[in-house]
Amino acid sequence: MTVLVGVHGVGHQQAGRHQLLARWSLALADGLERAYGATVAVPDLDIAFYGDLVWQHHQDRGKGVLDGGVWEEFDDDELRDLAASMRDLIGEHELAAAEQLPSAKGYTRVPQAIVRLLSVLDTRFGPTAVVLFVSQFRQVRRYLREPLVKAEVDARVRGTVGGDCRVLIGHSLGSVVAFEFVRQNPEHRLDLLLTLGSPLGLRMVRERMADPGHGSSAIWGVPGNVSHWVNVRDVHDPVACAGDLTTWWPGVVDRHVVNQGDAHCAERYLGKRVCGQAILAAVPDLVA
User: Fold this and answer.
1) Parallel, antiparallel, or unpaired for β 229-234 and 253-257?
2) Are 264 and 174 in contact (CB under 8 A)?
3) Which domains does the chain have, with CATH numbers?
4) Would you say 265 and 244 are in contact if contact means Cβ atoms under 8 Å apart?
5) Is the distance from CB of 18 to CB of 179 less than 8 angstroms?
6) Which of 9, 56, 68, 140 has its CA 20 to 30 A from that of 178?
7) C-alpha torsion sign, points 14, 17, 23, 28
8) Contact 120, 104 (CB under 8 A)
C-alpha cells in the first residue's frame, strides 16, 4: 500500500525513478522527523517518473544560457513566449532599467530584449536562475503544448498513483502534472496535495492549462477531491516567483521556507518541517 506518491520536476531526463526515489525518501524522512519530534522510519513513497518524455537536447550545463549556441533550437514562437513569461515576473522599474542596458554583442540568434530580460533575472535570483528558468520554461511549455507528450506523461502518473494514494506531492513542473491528475481524476480523493516550488501561478502556464481555474470556485477554494492543498515555496525560487497560490485558489495554505543556496531543490523542500507537518496533519497514522 503506497500512501505517498511524488511527481518530480524538470532536469531529470538522465536519472530515473529509483534514483529519485532514494533521494526523495530520505529528504522526506527528515521533514517528518522534524515535524514529529522523534525518529521515524523512511516512508513508503513511490515516484511517477516521466523525465525521459520531456527531454531537452540543449540541456548542457557546461554552457551558459546566454551563449549563442544554446538558442539554436528556439523557434520564433518560443522566443516570444519566453519574453512574455519573463516580463510577467519583472516589475515596471526593472523593465525600464533593462531597456537602458547596452546591447550585448555576439548574440545574433537571441533578440537583444531577451538578453536584457535574462540579465535582470540573473541579477534578481542569482547566477543559476536563468538556466533553471529557461529549462523550466521549455519543459513546461512542451508538456502543455504537445498533446502526445502530455498524454504520455499523464498516463505515467495515473499508472503510479494507485487507489491507496492519499498524498500527492508535486515539485516544479510536477506540481502542474499533479494538478492535472487531480482535474482528470475527480473520483480519486486525496487527503493532501502538496506542491513545492510551483509555477502554477505563471501566466505562461495558466494560459495553456486545460482548466486553470479548476477548483477555485469550490466551497473550500480547492478542487473538490482534495481535502487539503499546501503550497510551499522559497521566495527566492525563480520557478515559483509568480507568488502564493492563494491568489488563484483561495483555499490553498501557502507556506514559505528558506532553501539558501539552492532555492528550487526538491530535497531541500521535502526536508523542511512544514512539509512533514502538512503530511502528518493529513495522514497522522503514517508514523504510528
Assistant:
1) parallel
2) no
3) 4-55+145-287 (3.40.50), 68-142 (no CATH)
4) no
5) no
6) 56
7) positive
8) no
From residue 279, alpha-carbon distances to 6, 72, 188, 262, 273 in Å are 13, 43, 18, 23, 10
Tens digit of each residue's pLDDT (9 = 90 or more) over 101-112? 665 544 455 666
Q: Partners of 218 in the beta sheet? A: none
Q: Count of residues for the chain? A: 288
Q: What is the largest CA-CA distance in the chain?
A: 62
Question: 548542457: which residue's cell?
Answer: 60
Claim: this prediction has a pTM higher than 0.70: yes
Half-sphere exposure of 80 (CA within 13 A, CB side): 3
Q: Please provide the DSSP assignment of the chain as one string.
A: ---EEEE--SS-TTS-HHHHHHHHHHHHHHHHHHHHTS--PPP-EEEE--GGGG--TT--TTS-TTSGGGGTT--HHHHHHHHHHHHHHS-HHHHHHHHHSPPPTT-SSS-HHHHHHHHHHHHHH-TTHHHHHHHHHHHHHHHHH-HHHHHHHHHHHHHHS-TT--EEEEETHHHHHHHHHHHH-TTS-BSEEEEES--TT-HHHHTTSS-TTTTTTSTTSS-TTBS-EEEEEETT-GGGTT--GGGT-TT-EEEEE--TT-TT-HHHHHTSHHHHHHHHHH-GGGG-
Residue whose entry in the numeric block shows the C-alpha cell 497560490: 245
